[in-house]
Amino acid sequence: MGCVPSETTQDRVHKPVQSGHVPSGDLALHKTATQSSTLDANIAGRAVDGTIGKKIPGGHCSHTGLHQNQAWWKVDLGDVYRIQTINITYRQAFTTRLYGYYLYVTNHTDMAVDSNGSISTHRGHLCYHDNGSALPNYKQSRHCSINGIYVIFYNKRPVDDTMHPAISDVAYIELCEVQVFGCPVNNFGPDCSSVCHCRTGSCNPDTGHCDVSGCQIGWTGTSCSECTMNHFGPNCSSVCHCSDGGCNPDTGHCDVSGCQSGWTGTSCSVCDTNHFGPGCAKQCHCETEGCNKIDGTCNVTGCQDGWMGKSCDQSKLSCSIRQSASKPGDTGLAGLSLDRLAVTGADGNKHC
Ligand SMILES: [Ca+2]
User: Cβ(142)–Cβ(126) under 8 Å?
Assistant: First the structure.
């Protein structure tokens, strides 16, 4: 017997699941199954044919060859899934052959049987090893919460632990059905239709809780499937600009307040190049086009001729008129340049 493997020796990488195609249910159903040897017509695929069965003559169970001291069976799920539970129905009344089995999940194609006759575990995850003092039930349900493409069933004789006297002396695998339940990686919920957004790693397919870390930027909630208060949109990647901080997570609309200064419109879009302030109602008056969207200060140079103030929003003409009006008896502006009516502020601009 050689390697467990097949197809290529390259590891597969996770492919994002396309919208609208979210497999759930029995992930192993009608997938490609192989085994170390086959007795008669009892091919590996009979263990994923959707008919559970209990007996070999029914035509719905797999059976490896005779006179072997080790045997394996493998199903290729076709993509990386976050597996959660594996249900096994073995040939009923033949649990002396089921005794001692190993159940693995891996996403590597080169998981191999080593020189001692044991399957190598350094590139696979051992979900379960049967080594109890009693014969196992022919129906097994094993929790195995891990990402993987392949589910591998393995057995050998003699077993390392020979405490049980009634086990078979030859390694057989006779699987009537193997059912694998879980979700595509980063999907969760009863029908796997919810998506988690964990910062690293994936999430539990039942609860959506991240395995390792917290949420990606823009996401929050116990399953990282809700936009944070100031983010919205399909990927929670758009930032809200409402004056109260929050917005509708789908539309970005400010449900309670208006937009922050520098933003306008139903989804609070940024002001255009030449406007700033609340509702983008004020016009920039800088020498160089554009200004700070919030306070109108010039990004590069000072105010245009005729304008002054920190935000270049004060007309020198109106300034001079105000100053004139504030001085009873003043006869007017004759002989004064507009610049002489203003003082230079800390921002370098003229002020009334
Ligand atoms: Ca079957």
Answer: no
